[in-house]
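Hey everyone, long-time lurker, first post.

I ran two proteins through the pipeline my lab uses and got sequence/structure pairs for each. Pasting them in order. The first:
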Amino acid sequence: MKADSLKKLVMIIAIMACFSGLFAQKGLFNIRYEMTAQEVDEVLARASFYPRESENNAVKYYSDMSLTVSAIMVFFHPDSGKVVGWFVKYLPDLGGMNYHLIIDRIQNMHGTKNHMDEDTNQLIWFLTDVRTLHVMFGPDGSLTALYYDSFYSDLFSFGSPSEAEMSD
């Protein structure tokens, strides 16, 4: 009887561990997968970011007060209108200490276990089997962070945002 109870307990813990990853997907700027556009607007307004542009299934948020972030682009599912990913573009030339602080914050949120992809020169956190966080430097030298969901890869085909698109 004791062995059966122990097996059940181990099974419950294993199931809870699997599902915890689905709910713990809050990332930079307190954005979460599955948020509505209104929830994103409210969360980003607290950080002084407001929507200024939209295209297809993405909304671009800008701030006149941020000293570190150029823009945030949030990708929404076309049917449900819920968040499937987001892209944060930091200002170029923030300096090594600021980059270190950003990476520390990401590690505090998502853990220190990540993968360095040498071919693409990006740090990748595997959040679930389909959700990842990609941190890399853009062509202009700015640090970028992309919360990606491979299940909706077609929604992320925004190309490489130009300097004009993602800057103040």
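...and the second, right after it:
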Amino acid sequence: MKSHQKIKEQIEFWFLKYHGKEKSDFNGKEIFTLYDLLSDDLKTELSKSLQSGGEEIPVLFFKVKDGEYIVNTTSRFLKIDASTVDEISYINFDRHVGFKSKVINEDTGEPVSVKKSGVLSEFGIKSKDGDVKYWRMPSGRPAFGFWNITDKCELVGRKYLT
């Protein structure tokens, strides 16, 4: 079992390695970024929803749209919006199933490629019990970064938290 600080460092390493950058290359205003770099006001707003227990540490932040976010802590995924908080523990996380095969632009009703940036689409996260939760995410490079980096959270749940 690893400490939450060590898990945070591991997830940050995966993030920086994926992007091929240093922490100083980010400013916290990116769609997908390091939680530590967020403004104090946003951290305060999010802390009300995080309800973290014990040693859990927020690590990654993904902005779906204004008022709707996904936060990766050292032990779970959290989807936060104005009225709800949904979560998936890494211990119960199996894998990402990715975007639904057909992405529809909400404004035009037309199908678009999941590689086109900024189109909100359903992204599947599968639990070990076979349940798949679909959370809306903007498509494009930030979403694929999220997919590639956080898919490793299965390892965190399997090796570091049990």
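Reply from user beta_strand_b:
Welcome! Quick read of the second one: Helices lie at 4-19, 40-50, 141-150, 153-160. The mean pLDDT is 90.
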